[in-house]
């Protein structure tokens, strides 16, 4: 607990360091970024009331940057940090600690919560709709004016927690996956239309990464084979995503432009070592490996002994833990996404 509190204050002080002093928080000349989604984008919204279940607040998370845990599920930066940096902006402040960093408010806000989904995922995390409610409440409270919203960008990162939860809830999930995807995208559409109604002019949405290649799936083959039967989910999800975004682009009241960030292709180009992509020494082997399938990176036993091992050089690994890329992995994937984002912004 003491350790967690320390990390928390470290994050706060870090934000002040990053920002320096600047007056007036609703200055609409700053490029605001509003972030929604899960652990692929969360920079500190996960409640530490969850104790060690919020592993991102404990060692070895954050070991590369900033060399302390900050609530990011990585050894360092995550996708939202790279997007903000590309916009020549600071990483937006996590919603949860917004009161502690008023000078960061002109850069937008990060509402993403690790573990969340479009639907509820059973662990009390704010779903996507609730995260959008949080943006609306900031507007209603006058933190962001309509004018500043009109010059903002949104990043929506949905990385598959809905499927994990569905698989746990429904023993025949495999038979019902089409129907589930249909319902999921009906809700996704409602959520994205709300961002349009709020007046965000540019919305970037990630598609689903190759969930079949996460260390969680490749562990049975000693991190050599992506799980082909799972790859169907990503395929169908991304097909539905293309359709949805096409539909939204053609939509009736289109002051909002939508862009798909193809993280699926970005990840695969690195995992398959496609020519021109960043070379990673270990594309499938995670840096932080739990000692068994039943434990996780960051887990301790009753005596406080580590139930995981950490590699010496995280930058040689694409994956950090059983589900998340390293900072180097995100940097490499972002290289792939950059040209598309540049054209869009
Ligand atoms: C900022 O807001 C002011 C007043 O709300 C408006 O006059 C101005 O055009 C805005 N500037 C930009 C860059 O949007
Ligand atoms: C999102 O969470 C809110 C608050 O718990 C709940 O009322 C709403 O039904 C949820 N939405 C979806 C799509 O699951
Ligand atoms: C801001 O925009 C919303 C929706 O477009 C509108 O209902 C509201 O009145 C506007 N607020 C101000 C202060 O202009
Ligand atoms: C994975 O590696 C372990 C230890 O090196 C070995 O015992 C096991 O047979 C390997 N499994 C596969 C599927 O190759
Ligand atoms: C996917 O394949 C793995 C290994 O072949 C198997 O254990 C698992 O049950 C399969 N999952 C589904 C949903 O068919
Ligand atoms: C646009 O309008 C058409 C016809 O009214 C409707 O079918 C479609 O769903 C609308 N698109 C969006 C994105 O709201």
Structural features, described:
The chain has helices at residues 2-19, 79-86, 128-140, 146-149, 161-169, 173-198, 215-218, 228-249, 263-271, 327-344, and strands at residues 33-37, 93-94, 108-110, 153-157, 202-206, 257-261, 288-290, 308-310. The model is unreliable at 1-25 (pLDDT under 50). The longest helix has 26 residues, at 173-198. It is globular, with a radius of gyration of 19 Å. It is α/β, with parallel strands linked by helices. The protein has a single domain (31-280, 327-344), classed as 3-Layer(aba) Sandwich (Rossmann fold). Bound molecules: 2-acetamido-2-deoxy-beta-D-glucopyranose (NAG) (6 copies). Residues 146, 199 line the site of one 2-acetamido-2-deoxy-beta-D-glucopyranose (NAG). One 2-acetamido-2-deoxy-beta-D-glucopyranose (NAG) binds next to loops. InterPro entries: GDSL.
Strand neighbour order, sheet with most strands: 2-3-1-4-5-6
- Name the overall outline: globular
SS field, number of helical segments:
10
Number of domains in the coordinates? Answer: 1
| CATH H level, superfamily name | SGNH hydrolase
Q: What is the third-level CATH name, the topology?
A: Rossmann fold
Low-confidence stretches: 1-25
CATH A-level architecture: 3-Layer(aba) Sandwich
> Compute the gyration radius: what is it?
19 Å
**Distinct ligands, ions and cofactors found in the model:** 2-acetamido-2-deoxy-beta-D-glucopyranose
Signal peptide: 1-23
GO molecular function: hydrolase activity, acting on ester bonds
Pfam families: Lipase_GDSL (PF00657)
InterPro entries: GDSL (IPR001087)
């Amino acid at each position: 607990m003491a350790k967690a509190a320390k990390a928390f204050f470290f994050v706060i002080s870090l934000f002040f360091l990053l920002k320096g002093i600047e007056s007036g928080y609703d200055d609409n000349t700053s490029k605001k970024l509003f972030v929604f989604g899960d652990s692929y984008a969360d920079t500190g919204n996960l409640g530490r009331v969850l104790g060690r279940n919020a592993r991102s607040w404990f060692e070895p998370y954050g070991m590369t940057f900033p060399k302390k845990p900050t609530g990011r599920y990585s050894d360092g930066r995550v996708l939202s940090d790279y997007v903000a940096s590309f916009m020549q902006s600071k990483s937006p402040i996590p919603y949860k600690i917004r009161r502690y960093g008023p000078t960061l408010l002109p850069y937008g806000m990060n509402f993403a919560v690790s573990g969340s989904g479009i639907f509820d995922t059973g662990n009390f995390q704010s779903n996507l709709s609730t995260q959008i409610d949080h943006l609306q409440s900031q507007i209603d409270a006058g933190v962001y004016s309509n004018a500043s919203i009109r010059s903002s960008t949104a990043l929506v990162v949905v990385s598959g927690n809905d499927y994990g939860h569905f698989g746990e809830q429904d023993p025949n999930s495999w038979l019902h996956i089409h129907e589930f995807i249909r319902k999921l995208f009906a809700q996704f559409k409602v959520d994205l239309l709300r961002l349009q109604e709020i007046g965000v002019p540019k919305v970037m949405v990630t598609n689903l990464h190759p969930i079949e290649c996460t260390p969680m799936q490749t562990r049975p083959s000693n991190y050599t084979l992506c799980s082909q039967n799972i790859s169907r989910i990503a395929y169908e999800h991304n097909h539905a995503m293309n359709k949805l975004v096409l539909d939204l682009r053609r939509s009736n009241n289109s002051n909002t432009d939508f862009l798909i960030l193809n993280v699926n292709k970005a990840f695969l180009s690195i995992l398959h070592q496609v020519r021109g992509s960043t070379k990673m020494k270990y594309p499938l082997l995670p840096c932080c490996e739990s000692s068994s399938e039943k434990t996780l990176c960051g887990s301790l036993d009753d005596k406080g002994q580590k139930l995981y091992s950490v590699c010496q050089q995280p930058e040689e690994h694409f994956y950090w833990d059983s589900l998340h890329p390293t900072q180097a992995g995100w940097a490499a994937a972002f290289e792939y996404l950059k040209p598309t984002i540049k054209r869009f912004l």
